[in-house]
Amino acid sequence: MSENTRGGWGLWIWAALVAVLLVAPLLAVVPISFSAKQSFTFPPSSLSLKWYENIVSSPRWWSAIGTSILLGVLVMVICTLLGTAAALGIHRYPGRVGAVVTGILVAPMIIPGIVSAVAIYASYLRWHLTGNLQGFLLAHTVLALPFVVVTVLSSLSSTDPALERAAASLGAGAWRTFARVTLPAIAPSVGAGALFSFVTSFDEVVAASFLQSPVIRTLPIEMFVSVTNQVDPTIAAVSTVILALTTMVVLLPVIVRNRRPKGASS
Amino acid sequence: MAATARRLSGRSRRTSALLLMLPALAVVLVFFVYPVIALSARSFLEPEPGVSQYVSLFADGTTRTILVRTLVVAALVTAVTLVLAYPYAYLMSLSGPGVRALLLFLVLLPFWSSLMARTFAWIVLLQPRGIVATLLSSIGLGGVPLLGSQVGVTIAMTQVLLPFMVLPLFNTMVRIDRRLLSAAHSMGASKFRALVRVFVPLSMPGVAAGCVIVFVLSIGFWVTPRLIGSPQQSLIGQLIETKVGTLLDFAGAGAISVLLLVITAVLLLVAGAGARLLLGSPDSGGRNDE
Amino acid sequence: MSTNSSGVRLRSVTKRFRSGTIGIDNASLTIEGGEFVTFLGPSGSGKTTTLNTIAGFVRPTSGSIEIGGRDVTKVPPSKRNLGIVFQNYALFPHMSVRDNVAFGLHGRGLSKHEVSKRINDVLTMVRLGGLEDRRPKQLSGGQQQRVALARALVYQPPVLLMDEPLSALDKALRDQMQVEIGRIHREVGTTFLFVTHDQNEALGLSDRIVLFNEGRILQVGTPSELYEQPRSLFAAQFLGESNVFRGRVTSAQTLEFAGVPLRFNGGAPATKSAAIVVRPENLLVRQADEARPDENQVSALITNISYFGSFRSIMVSYLDGSSGQLRESASSEARFSRGDNVSVCWDPGRAVLVDDGEAAA
Predict the structure, then answer these.
(1) Which residue among C55, C81, C87 places its CB closest to the CB of B188?
(2) The domain that contains A140 carries what CATH number?
(3) Nearest-CA distance from B93 to chain C in Å?
(4) Is A117 inside a domain boundary?
């Protein structure tokens, strides 16, 4: 039936325009990062690598990167553990209880970002959780948790429940069933959830901009400050590095999938 | 005997399920749900119990203007992303695995990349005598202020939110049974009629999901309007930030937050009910059995 | 429902897929208006691809297709005016039964009154009156099948194509719908083309059967022709049960099977290696010394006997190690038991000589 379902030229042109709109803006930062002048003029008139050197030499950027990576890894570990456990629990407790728990855990994903940030700020201010790592950690954990819960839950619902029963019927205990049957089945989505939670924390600006202090700043906050003050093109260099890393992360599964021998595709 | 054992194992299964959920639930309840409720409560309790915050909210002309402006921008961004994304997702849904992977990659790249990097990129593009200004003047639209204007904010938000429209649309479209279109053709329907009468209605759950997500994200957007827009043209997120950051008026910020939460809840309910109405059951369009 | 039917003609239709596999290999076929024709074959035999080329969903690599005398090879599906019942019905889930059925009446210049009359008539014919406002999901499998039929018949297409329409139903419902489809065919008089891999559906429903294998049309004929006069080992084995005696043709009248000469009727075979095919009901079991001179006889060992109420099925093993089966009326006295050495006999007139499948095709 493939012969009736190919798109027309108009569709392809439209999609190409959308693709340009999606990706081209990202590329605008690359030339700026190599500019020799302290301006955002595009395209730059002369080239240099000094803004890249600046990332490494400036304690401001360096400590922000360190904070963001530390925070991201901690958030990833906590979210992956809590989120996967919660998804397993929800999966075993279907019906109203499961639905309510899902609703609560997913709420941070649905509630408008600025509302979450201000609400967190108002309470954390009273609990002395602003301007320190614990505050960032808690805020980013609750904001990133939904991504782990949702991805793991969706892969649990698509695994065959008969597998677990088969393992149990073969005499495997609850733990062995989990380790040998359930976990391998959901491992890819646990991995995806972990990546999701790291990126959510690494990229989070809104809550962080309320919780930050001059003493503790994450990378996005440093970028935010740099943009508002029009400091220098170091931010372009930072953005370029982040985009390069992101591209690799997104391409990785594509490459891995293409390496594998292709199954019968219908 | 067996029945008792099953009931016991059922109960222990439920207990272990609850234990598994407990840590995540506790963290979210204490460090997220409570703060949101507390902030909402403050809007009804400060400075005195009652709805005075809401009365002054709606009495204030500036707030009303900002609210309307936010809703207009959100609606505009939603409409533009829908128009851009629908054909794109459609092409994705009918492409072969190779083209589909490429189109998906192009959507996921901005989706995964840093919001700050993207916003900074837009500042570069939208600056006076930047690329977009040059492009616009070449088609006779020169002189439109971009940075610090709603036009610029809308353009940047559209790009940032486009993946959130494409992905739910694609997810719905790819599940639509292509044989339904073959069936429509076999009954004499033209390509256009099959598209309008069969494909488009069945893609509505995706349209609804995409629109709700983009609209909700738009009204809660803060970074892009804050950095690309101007204080004179601020959106509701900036207003909340100003109330908290500058005025420490948590009760006032709470009132606006409650307003946004209500709008979000209503949209979710309407979209859910709409999807159910369309297909007569809660699960979404098109069977994919076989 | 007025009678409105067209013939269908395939001339040397070949479909080669982009992958290089051949879907249809030079198929030619003439179907008369009003006939009920079944495309029968295993999966991947080309029957569904052939149906899809007639429907217009697949464009043949070469050859032409005529419907009602008009060459439609390059006509898109929407302009062929065919009724199609899809395998899983392909009912529009967002439309009521009435809207599903009404869909194909659009743009045919019918008055509102005529449209609702047609819908009522066709729903009455498929016995679905009263369910007009239901959504497909609210119907049972059998009811969905009826909606699919009504939807494809309401605009009175001259040809109705059905792609394994009964495969999604359970056994009891399948038998019931088979009777219904036969009745509807008699009522509307339209040409029915029915694809199936189920020999019972093919034998029970069709005026003629087109047997497919590996992209080719192997044989076309009435159900009894195909059953009684199979022209290939494949045809003999795909339709009904067969006892196959493979051997070498030694004269115009004899085939040597495991050293035993067996007589056959009919012309001289084209190849030296051939097989005699006998249906289970045409075989008799006798004591080893009971044979008659006018019969063919082969020694066999009884490996199993199963009782089926009206008959006994006797499984046997022949000299060359191949197995076979025969039937004996249960009203006759059971004379044999498992492990007996017996003679299996038949009248040469009740057997068919076919090319050995290995050498042919």
Answers:
(1) C81
(2) 1.10.3720.10
(3) 18
(4) yes
Q: CA triplet B43, B46, B52: central angle to 5 degrees?
A: 70
Tell me the shortest Cα–Cα distance from C116 to chain B, in angstroms. 17
The answer to whether B186 contacts chain C (CB < 8 Å) is yes
What percentage of chain A reaches a pLDDT higher than 70? 92
For chain C, the domains span 3-228, 241-360
Please report residues of C whose CB lies closer than 8 A to that of B182.
55, 57, 77, 84, 86, 90
Whether B67 has a pLDDT exceeding 50, the answer reads yes
Q: How far apart are CA C50 and CA C56, in angstroms?
A: 10
List the CATH number of the domain containing B140: 1.10.3720.10
Per the document, the length of chain B is 290
Options 3.50.50.60, 3.40.50.300, 3.30.70.1020, 3.90.1150.10; CATH for C3-228 is 3.40.50.300
Q: Which residues of B touch C103 (CB under 8 A)?
A: 184, 187, 189, 197
Q: For the segment A90-124, what is each residue's pLDDT rounded down to a tens digit?
A: 998 878 888 999 999 999 988 999 999 999 999 99
Q: Return the SS3 of A265.
A: coil
Which one-letter DSSP state was computed for residue C232?
B
With contacts defined as CB-CB under 8 Å, which chain B residues touch C151? 187
Q: Is residue A168 part of a domain?
A: yes
DSSP for B72-98 reads HHHHHHHHHHHHHHHHHHHHHHHS-HH
Chain A residues near residue C57 by CB distance under 8 angstroms: 1, 3-4
Which of chain C's residues have a Cβ under 8 Å away from the Cβ of B208?
none
Q: Is the pTM of this model over 0.90?
A: no
**CA-based nearest distance A27→chain C, Å:** 38
Q: A-side interface with C, Cβ within 8 Å? A: 1, 3-4
pLDDT value, residue B290: 28
Strands C191-196 and C36-40: parallel
- Residue C3's pLDDT is what? 55
Rounded mean pLDDT, C214-228 = 93
Name the pLDDT band for C321 (thresholds 50, 70, 90).
Answer: confident
Is-contact B106 A26, C-beta < 8 A?
no
Give the pLDDT of residue B9: 63
- Preferred mutation among A35, A81, A111, A115 to probe B, highest tally of B CBs within 10 A: A115
Kindly report the average pLDDT of chain C as a whole number.
Answer: 89
**Any domain includes B289:** no
> Comparing B8 with C282, which gets the higher pLDDT?
C282
Q: What is the CATH number of domain C241-360?
A: 2.40.50.140
Q: How far apart are CA B165 and CA B159, in angstroms?
A: 10
Range of the domain at B6: 1-45
For residues B34 and A110, the answer to whether their CB atoms sit within 8 Å is no
